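@channel sequence for tomorrow's demo:
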Amino acid sequence: MRTSDAPLVERMRGFGTTIFSEMTALAVQHDAVNLGQGFPDEDPPEPVLAAAHAAIDAGHHQYAPGPGIPQLRASIAEHQHRFHGLTYDPDGEVTVSFGATEAMAATILATCDRDDEVVVLEPTYDAYTAAIAMAGAVERRVPLTPPSEANPSGGWRLDPERLAATIGPRTRALVVNSPHNPTGTVLTDDELAAIAAVCRDHDLIAITDEVYEHLVYDGAHRPLATFPEMRDRTVTISSAGKTFSATGWKIGWACAPPPLTAAVRTTKQFLSFAGGTPLQHAVAHALTLPDDVYTELAVTHRERRDLVAAGLTHAGARVYGSAATYFLVADVSAWGYDDGEAFCRDAPARIGVAAVPVSAFVRDRPQVADLVRFAFCKRTPVLAEGVARLRGLSDHRR
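structure tokens (generated this afternoon):
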């Protein structure tokens, strides 16, 4: 085959358009309520918007420094100390990125060589898999144990023995996503302690995705970097997008000790270099807002979660508990589907609702074949309409 016939390198050929974009396109095509892709349908808080407008009016239109504007790096450092008791030097340990996805890619590209192994928790967000493939590294998955039918609210749990058995001589890094997308699970202190022990015992780099850190409804989020001897081997990644309903702004960050920060900055500068200068100024202000802004956000989303959970339950679905994030998972087999992906491809046209199959996040698809992820980060009237359409499923069963 000529090079022109297959320009995409082999390691990336398994990646096409993401399932999130596919479901959103179907939602648009059929004017469906989009409970698939995880983005809000409302504006950021007014003080955050005002700060963005002020930054534009002040003429902040040119390149920001590669690591991010000093004001934002200082705000991120203060945020980490204020909420988690973690101390970082804004100049040498905080890097602003073009969203959390870039921070994750830059970290993996910087720290993982060809044939190194990177351990991830499954279900797995597809951006991790793609970044590992771009680095030429090898992904190893540790499946979380789903809740039982008898206790659907029990959360998806990590088996420490299964994790330890996955570590090998070429393991370089461990990616931890908590609060976890798509399951809504928050890892417990015992689970995080087991991860920390594995990282210490095998001299691994921990890369944590904590973008839902402020969207926790049951229990509490604890960063892995707060565990003994973990701060100096952890790259802690988060962003403003989920916290402030500004996913399109793509302002993320990575906090890490100086050697890891230097590595991340080396690769990051050749990805986006820098972006969103006025928005960086706005997020610098947003992170200083009082605690009630964060608390009210969580209260609002908890109410939305409960609305969708009640609607799904009323429609006959078994709903798994969601302690955090924008998402909850439900079993759609009661609606005549043993294949969640088939349901998700039918539902936009059939009942006017879009969702995402959990099978898109796993390799062993039969184990989660009938599970579907629903996003509840929409305004209440939109969710109410989606719930009403889901309640009509009894009239549309096969």
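heads up for whoever presents: Residues 95 and 245 are 21 Å apart (CA to CA).
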